[in-house]
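Design job #97: recover the sequence.
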């Protein structure tokens, strides 16, 4: 079988698999199972490295190494969030621990990373040197196991779309913060459809973006800021920013990794190639959504008020 035949077979199989095997959100277990599988097969880590999130390419965007852009994202988020210089930090939705390790090693934070995926916890522990002050555990961001006021900083990247109740998520993030502590969140968001309702094709695209990667729903930047404010636990106002421009190149860069790193085919075989190809339509739809204004990349910063949780 030559490369043209492999490519044709892979394309056909990928389209069939994509249409037939959506991964809609059903429960927290469906999210955990998805991430367990992605972690076990190793394909996502091979192409995306230790950071399962988008990269930061600047504004205006400039060409940048794909993995370096992800590392830069962490440092840019620290700067934007104006984080305190030390303290206990909770990384909510830590993946395999890429951000947690940078936060511990480069900034000296005492980091606890949580994820709903047991396999991600196992891999995060494997990747973390003994001298890096970062620990990992399975926990549910909708019902965190930590007491009130446990952390100086709460940090979260691209976990929010997996949360079925954004108000509960917002309250949990703030509940575990100490008074005066800082919350900083980066997330995929949709356009505020209270102002501009989704049209027919946007509804189709949004349905695919939700169902393919186990998302119950996206919040808008405005909506999640309101959810945080509504907890009554924010000192002053929630600060927001839109990093859509800064992160937009990551979607096509994600696909390009399969071209510039053909050794992945040898490493994972035809089955791995088909699995990788299966994700391409979602990357393209994400690029369409973020490029057209249907989706936006939201940044959120809040300071915990000195109030008792009701």
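Job complete. Output follows.
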């Amino acid at each position: 079988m030559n490369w043209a035949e492999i490519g044709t077979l892979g394309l056909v199989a990928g389209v069939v698999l994509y249409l037939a095997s959506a991964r809609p959100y059903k429960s927290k277990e469906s999210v955990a199972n998805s991430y367990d599988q992605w972690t076990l097969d190793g394909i996502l880590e091979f192409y995306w490295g230790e950071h399962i999130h988008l990269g930061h390419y600047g504004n205006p965007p400039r060409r940048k190494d794909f993995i370096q852009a992800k590392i830069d994202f962490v440092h840019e988020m620290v700067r934007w969030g104006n984080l305190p210089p030390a303290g206990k930090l909770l990384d909510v939705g830590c993946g395999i621990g890429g951000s947690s390790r940078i936060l511990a090693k480069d900034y000296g934070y005492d980091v606890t990373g949580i994820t709903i995926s047991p396999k991600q916890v196992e891999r995060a522990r494997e990747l973390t040197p003994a001298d890096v002050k970062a620990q990992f555990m399975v926990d549910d961001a909708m019902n965190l196991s930590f007491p009130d006021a446990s952390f100086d900083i709460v940090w979260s990247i691209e976990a929010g779309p997996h949360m079925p109740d954004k108000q509960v998520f917002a309250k949990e993030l703030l509940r575990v913060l100490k008074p005066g502590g800082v919350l900083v969140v980066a997330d995929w968001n949709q356009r505020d459809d209270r102002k501009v309702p989704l049209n027919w094709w946007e509804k189709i695209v949004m349905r695919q973006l939700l169902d393919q990667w186990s998302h119950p729903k996206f919040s808008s930047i405005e909506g999640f800021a309101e959810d945080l404010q509504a907890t009554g636990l924010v000192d002053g106002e929630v600060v927001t920013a839109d990093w859509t421009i800064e992160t937009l190149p990551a979607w096509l860069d994600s696909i390009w990794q399969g071209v510039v790193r053909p050794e992945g085919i040898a490493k994972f075989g035809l089955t791995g190639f088909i699995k990788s190809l299966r994700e391409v339509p979602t990357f393209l739809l994400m690029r369409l959504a973020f490029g057209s204004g249907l989706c936006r990349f939201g940044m959120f910063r809040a300071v915990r008020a000195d109030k008792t949780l009701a």
